[in-house]
Write a structure and sequence with these properties.
By secondary structure, the protein is an alpha/beta fold. It contains 14 helices and 16 strands. The longest helix is centred in the middle third of the chain and has 18 residues.
């Protein structure tokens, strides 16, 4: 089926989805979660084929991004169940005004319509996006990258089986068959068929969508995330946070890419950082983190001299750019110059420094004494997420059900004329 045919079928399915009840949507989501687990073996078989094809052409951390396991499939199914348990955003009355002439004006939440998602190598996006779209009353059109297409196709087969089981239309969840650039361009240009386009992937994909889309598009994902170690930081806490934010899963957008250290503690902290992220990991047989150091950091520890682009790069790997700064205001200025507006953190026991950082940093998520790895729909109580918006309109940060809704005005009268 061509991409245009899939979009046309998706658009035609919108009225049917708009009419089903919250209970029907929840029943379908639970059936989809069960079907995902029941189809675990064909999904894993497809994923093994994807991994074999990708091996040798992508880095080990990107292979981890692509890989599925029984535990990850269970987590995907549990994510769908979490979405089913959330309140239905559709039909909520956001505001109600009664005018002097007797008109009652209700601002009411409604679905967007057809939501298209272009993503690359994370198969779990398939089920997350489908679940959030269905719960919020939207028909989804998924377009995975070539490397994950076999896995995505097997996941969609399972999700559609769950829809069939509950008697709902399979066209509520769709997967584009073409993984060429032409299909991505077609989604970007599908005026009248796509109501919202969400790219999830690297900076190249996101930039292409933002620059070329003729349909409404959300800028998501690219995360040059910073952790600033203040002079009043608990340095052991700072080590734990940086270790988690950099090494727990370096291939994701909420991983830390840059560490800023106050000059007042740099000579104490930077040797601790190198011992933890480089020496101890190498001794334990783990990939050591390559520290790319500005001149002031290089005066404290050995590492790789930072290149011109290192403070503007989303590494998605065991690499961390490190700079020494003169206090919280300098840290805020550095972040303003280099951040992508995703997630930034300060480690400090100084409430004034924390308040200045929270007020001065203009990113979707700002953390005080916590890892940037929490910027995630599940961790924020959204069930799962459609993506993490790094823009300000109409959504910002992890996108859940509310961000997949718009509104219309329902006006009740008794014969009023103007």
């Amino acid at each position: 089926m061509t991409t245009t045919e899939i979009l046309q079928r998706a658009k035609a399915a919108c009225p049917a989805l708009a009419r089903i009840s919250s209970a029907e949507k929840d029943a379908a989501l639970l059936a989809m979660a069960d079907a995902l687990e029941a189809h675990a073996e064909p999904i894993l078989e497809a994923n093994r084929a994807d991994l074999e094809q990708a091996r040798g052409s992508v880095s080990p951390v990107m292979l981890d991004r692509l890989a599925l396991s029984p535990a990850r499939i269970r987590a995907m199914a549990d994510g769908i169940r979490d979405v089913a348990a959330l309140p239905d955003p559709v039909g909520r009355v956001l505001t109600r005004v009664e005018r002097p002439n007797g008109l009652v004006i209700e601002k009411t939440a409604v679905a967007l319509g057809v939501v298209a998602i272009i993503y690359e190598s994370r198969p779990n996006v398939t089920s997350d996006a489908a679940a959030l779209a269905l719960k919020s009353g939207n028909v989804c059109v998924l377009r995975s990258g070539r490397q994950a297409h076999g896995s995505a196709s097997a996941i969609v087969d399972a999700l559609r089986a769950g829809l069939r089981q509950t008697g709902l239309c399979e066209d509520f969840v769709n997967l584009v068959e073409d993984t060429s650039r032409a299909s991505a361009a077609e989604l970007m240009q599908a005026v009248g068929l796509v109501d919202l386009l969400i790219p999830r992937g690297g900076s190249g994909l996101i930039r292409s969508c933002v620059e070329n889309a003729r349909v409404p598009c959300i800028q998501t994902g690219t995360g040059i995330c910073h952790i600033y170690v203040d002079k009043a930081a608990d340095l052991d806490m700072a080590l734990d946070l940086l270790d988690n934010a950099k090494t727990s899963r370096p291939s994701v957008c909420n991983a830390a890419e840059c560490c800023l250290v106050d000059a007042a503690v740099a000579e104490r902290f930077l040797p601790m950082l190198k011992a933890r992220l480089v020496d101890a990991r190498a001794a334990a047989g783990l990939p050591p983190v390559e520290l790319r150091l500005d001149a002031r950091a290089a005066a404290c520890i050995d590492g790789t001299p930072a290149g011109e682009q290192d403070f503007d790069t989303e590494f998605l790997d065991y690499i961390l750019a490190v700079a020494v700064v003169d206090g919280v205001e300098a840290a805020i200025s550095h972040i303003a110059a280099h951040s992508t507006g995703h997630s930034e953190a300060i480690v400090t026991a100084d409430e004034a420094a924390a308040a200045a950082f929270a007020a001065g940093v203009d990113s979707a998520a700002v953390y005080i004494n916590a890892s940037t790895r929490f910027t995630d729909g599940g961790e924020f109580g959204l069930g799962c997420e459609m993506g993490i918006s790094t823009q300000k309109l109409h959504a910002r940060g992890p996108m859940g059900l509310d961000e997949l809704s718009t509104y219309k005005y329902v006006v009740r009268g008794s014969g009023q004329i103007r």
